[in-house]
Amino acid sequence: MTTYGNARIQMEKATKLMGLSEEAFDEVLKPENVERVSFKVNMDNGSDQTFEGVRVQHHSGRGPTKGGIRFHPQVDVDEVMALATWMTWKCAVVNIPFGGGKGGVTVNPKLLSKGELERVSKGFMTAIAPVVGPDRDIPAPDVGTTAEIMAWMLDAYNAAVGGNHPGVITGKPIERGGSYGRDDATARGGFYVLNYLAKSLNLLPGASIAIQGFGNAGQHFAELCANAGYKVVAVSDTSGGIYNPKGLDVEKLLKIKQETRMIVDYEDAQKVTNEELLELEVDVLAPAALENQITRDNADKVKAKIVLELANGPTTPEADEILFKKGTVVLPDILANAGGVTVSYFEWVQNQRNERWPLERIHEQLEEKMHKAAQAVYDMGVKHKTHLRTAALMVALERVLAAGRK
User: Fold this and answer.
1) What pLDDT score was predicted for residue 94?
2) Beta strands in 10-60 (DSSP E)
3) Quick one: average pLDDT of 267-277?
4) pLDDT per residue as tens digits for the range 165-187
5) How far apart are CA 334 and CA 392, in angstroms?
6) Are 343 and 350 in contact (CB under 8 A)?
């Protein structure tokens, strides 16, 4: 099953519960625009190389489309369409006035020099400049892209259209119009959701947490949870995983990650694979890596009481049904990792108003947004006796259908 196929299957149950016709379902699912681009970049060796990219705008009924730009060798149109679709639901769940967008370039950024990376970044933005803009479609960082890359893209957009338009892109460096609080926004949003629903989900103080993926979101989530009294017992990254049921020293772990990039250098813990981490007996499992990590092949082995999706699409539709039947609560990505796009929205508002909000205001407004979204999703799940992904999609669909297409 393709990634976009998974997105479609997830929607089918929600639309059936809402009584939507197949025609209405197809209409709300299809993207408004798929922009494929090719652009040439002069490489360090003097040759010209052609790169392929795509920008998908899924639904603009609630406002400009919004979503990251991914630099990865496996970027393809199917994946980007799925991610753009999820962004529409994500923005609607947290009730911010954006629709879903997504973009990407098929490239391994690790194989590029800094100069080549800058030229690829600017080349892509120049190619998509006619279809993006502060009031039309607003990109942001994603896998393989950074705040610095966003600054390069801002320069390219300004050069293409003239003037200075900081609101065309979010996730920028602070000095280029970025927002405080963006670095840990995804993790913090997930943390706020978990904390808010803890009582409803019978999650006790000191609950154990395993985190698959120890990049930006995983690291910040571990730190927030440890500071709040939760017990982080396992983490993993591309080097492997570590597990200690008594708990890991997160501060020490973060230092090791910064110094050596290899969390397996952490002592006083047993080594586990990424796959084994998913099957540990913990209270909360937080997939924070890539798509399709929990599938029909391993869902029955997941022993966590709660799965908190910090990654996009880590659980397949078949796995969702298996987990629901065995009583595992999945806090879905379109709720749990929506902190990132929410703070991106705050950044966009600041750019449009030429303001700079203090960090305290960012945190307060993010917490309020995530709490309201979590309550709406939880109530919908109870009302329809369905799992929370379907509930979240129903919340989103109600808001998207109310807005209609432009």
Assistant:
1) 97
2) 33-42, 48-57
3) 91
4) 999 999 999 999 999 999 999 99
5) 7
6) no
Q: Please, which residues have CB within 8 angstroms of residue 1's CB and are 6 or more apart in sequence?
A: 9, 316, 317
Name the strand (E) or helix (H) holding 123: helix 114-128
The single residue of 13, 102, 231, 305 carrying the catalytic annotation is: 102
Kindly state the tokens that stand for 395: 């919340």
CA dist 296 and 66 (Å) reads 31
- Indicate the DSSP class of residue 62: T
User: In which element (H, E) is residue 349 found?
Assistant: helix 339-353
Token reading at 192: 């706020």
What is the spatial distance between Cα 226 and Cα 187, in angstroms, rounded to a whole number? 13
Of 143 and 48, the one with more pLDDT: 48
pLDDT at residue 87 tops 90: yes
Confidence of residue 406 (pLDDT cuts 50, 70, 90): low
Closest C-alpha to 135, from 115, 94, 165: 165
With cut-offs at 50, 70 and 90, classify the pLDDT of residue 338.
very high
What confidence score (pLDDT) does residue 131 get?
Answer: 98
Angle formed by the axes of helices 388-403 and 3-17, nearest 10°: 80
pLDDT at 1: 59
Closest CA to 185 of 406, 336, 353: 336
| Domains delineated in the chain | 3-11+26-176 (3.40.50.10860), 185-336 (3.40.50.720)
Q: How many Å apart are CA 197 and CA 176, to the nearest integer? A: 36
What phi and psi values does residue 327 have, to the nearest 5 degrees?
90, 10
* DSSP per-residue letters across 74-121: T--HHHHHHHHHHHHHHHHHTT-S-EEEEEEEE--GGGS-HHHHHHHH
- How far apart, in whole angstroms, are the C-alpha atoms of residue 41 and residue 36? 16
CA-CA distance, 339 to 308, in Å (whole number)? 13
Q: What is the mean pLDDT of the chain?
A: 93
Residue whose pair of structure tokens reads 């920008």 in the numeric block: 55
**What is the DSSP annotation of 276-343?**
HHHTS--SEEEE-S-S--B-TTTGGG---SEEE--SSS-B-HHHHHHHHHTT-EEE-HHHHTTHHHHH
Q: Is 270 exposed, middle or buried (0-12, 13-18, 19+ CB in 10 A)?
A: exposed
Interhelix angle 185-197/339-353, nearest 10 degrees: 120
Please say if the pLDDT value at position 16 is more than 90. no
Query: 199 catalytic, yes or no?
Result: no
Q: For 94-104, what is the mean pLDDT?
A: 97
